[in-house]
Amino acid sequence: MSRPLMVTFSAGSHGSWRVDGVTSVIGPSLALSARLQICEDESPPATDEAVWQLRGTVSNLRYTSLSDRSMLQASQAGLGRRAATRAALIPIKKNEAWWNLAQDERAAVFHEASRHIEIGARYLPAVARRLHHSRDLGEPFDFLTWFEYAPEAANEFEELVAALRATAEWQYVEREVDIRLSR
User: Fold this and answer.
1) Domain range enclosing 105
2) N or C: which end of the chain has fewer CB within 10 A?
3) Rounded to an integer, what distance in angstroms lies between the CA atom of residue 152 and that of residue 134?
4) How, if at all, do strands 86-94 and 143-149 pair?
């Protein structure tokens, strides 16, 4: 396995993404800023002007079967596409009830009860996504979900987010912030 990729999302006055809005879905929000900078490096540049910073790692796929992984690799478009001028960063923290479940119980909620991958696959390749794990880093969120899409796929993205928020898995979410961006 390759080394996990550390990613830092820094909100402030610099960055390639313009912050269009920050909305609390559940729990406390994050402060609004003008821009979002994404640094894919072990040591992001120090900045005193950051309104907030969130870190996560991209590592091995969890809860993903071989057939799911093959389907996702065949269907998903890459990040950074020229047409994908809209994005969303959605940090999520799950409650202790989730983390107290055994691994197989969490996987069952994810796959059978929520059909998480099945729902997400419906919106590929229009919506590209990448998951960042933050819980083991001591961050305020467990996951940082990053999505990119073209403006004409905005309705599809809204359907995707609504469908995921209606699943059994979301009963375990205690904090979620929806940050919308454009470039």
Assistant:
1) 56-182
2) N
3) 31
4) antiparallel
